[in-house]
């Protein structure tokens, strides 16, 4: 492998020779990034896809990023919805949650309000997914399970401004029975990539989430709204303010 090649991570890059060894059909996995404004949602997605760190704050208009990864020999097409942290109406957030297969709920360790919002967002995700799977019981497959959610604490590099301890974050995630990571998107490229890796690893192997009946019915409902969100194709878009 060419060490000098500007790729995002050796664990995640899909090389041509690897592609030929993969036996299963690629699956599409939709990840929704939730969290209050300025917690680092856009910085995290862009860091994961391009390795670059955005040092400037530009409030997000919703964007869907597309990216391809190979995890444990399984090719995944990722569609990552970077939501706007600004207030939005309940219907909009519901549509986005219905669109997703799995979720990263972010807060900043320097912002207690963003931490306080985590529990509400996690309950919302579980509630909306439970309702949209039609209350079916006893069915097989991932549609009846709560969707994978990971709680992510960002900006741990800002120790002097810390308002939420790591123990508090771990305690909340434990109470919600969710996985938890504390990271610095600014300082930690590998730990940022590991968040996505771990989330993808929580998806049941047998579940082709892009074609299950409940996923399809959810998506019919939300497709009109989501089509309005700009899509960023693979490859690094150029923004001012990016640093390596
Ligand atoms: N120190 C530090 N700053 C960070 C880190 N991650 C993101 N930031 C900064 O936090 C600010 C907000 O980051 P964004 O990624 O725009 O936040 P967002 O959650 O997408 O915000 P909205 O678009 O309003 O929802 C930017 O100035 C980033 O550079 C980090 O790990 N450490």
Automatic annotation (TrEMBL):
<protein>
    <recommendedName>
        <fullName>small monomeric GTPase</fullName>
        <ecNumber>3.6.5.2</ecNumber>
    </recommendedName>
</protein>
<keyword id="KW-0342">GTP-binding</keyword>
<dbReference type="InterPro" id="IPR051065">
    <property type="entry name" value="Ras-related_GTPase"/>
</dbReference>
<dbReference type="InterPro" id="IPR001806">
    <property type="entry name" value="Small_GTPase"/>
</dbReference>
<dbReference type="GO" id="GO:0005525">
    <property type="term" value="F:GTP binding"/>
</dbReference>
<dbReference type="GO" id="GO:0003925">
    <property type="term" value="F:G protein activity"/>
</dbReference>
<keyword id="KW-0378">Hydrolase</keyword>
<keyword id="KW-0547">Nucleotide-binding</keyword>
<comment type="similarity">
    <text>Belongs to the small GTPase superfamily. Ras family.</text>
</comment>
<dbReference type="InterPro" id="IPR027417">
    <property type="entry name" value="P-loop_NTPase"/>
</dbReference>
<dbReference type="Pfam" id="PF00071">
    <property type="entry name" value="Ras"/>
</dbReference>
């Amino acid at each position: 492998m060419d060490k000098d090649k500007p790729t995002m991570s050796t664990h995640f890059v899909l090389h041509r020779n690897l592609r030929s060894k993969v036996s299963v059909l690629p699956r599409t996995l939709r990840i929704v990034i939730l969290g209050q404004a300025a917690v680092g949602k856009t910085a995290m997605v862009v860091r994961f896809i391009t390795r670059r760190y955005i040092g400037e704050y530009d409030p997000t208009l919703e964007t869907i990023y597309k990216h391809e990864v190979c995890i444990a020999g399984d090719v995944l097409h990722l569609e990552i919805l970077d939501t706007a942290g600004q207030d939005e109406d309940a219907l909009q957030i519901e549509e986005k949650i219905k669109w997703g297969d799995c979720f990263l709920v972010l807060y900043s360790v320097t912002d207690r309000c963003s931490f306080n919002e985590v529990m509400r967002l996690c309950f919302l995700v579980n509630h909306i997914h439970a309702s949209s799977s039609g209350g079916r019981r006893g069915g097989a497959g991932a549609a009846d399970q709560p969707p994978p959610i990971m709680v992510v604490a960002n900006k741990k590099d800002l120790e002097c401004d810390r308002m939420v301890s790591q123990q508090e974050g771990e305690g909340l995630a434990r109470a919600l029975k969710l996985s938890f990571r504390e990271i610095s998107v600014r300082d930690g490229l590998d730990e940022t990539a590991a968040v996505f890796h771990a989330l993808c690893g929580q998806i049941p192997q047998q579940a082709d989430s892009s074609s299950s009946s409940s996923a399809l019915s959810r998506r019919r409902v939300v497709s009109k709204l989501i089509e309005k969100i700009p899509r960023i194709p693979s490859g690094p878009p150029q923004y001012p303010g990016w640093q390596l």
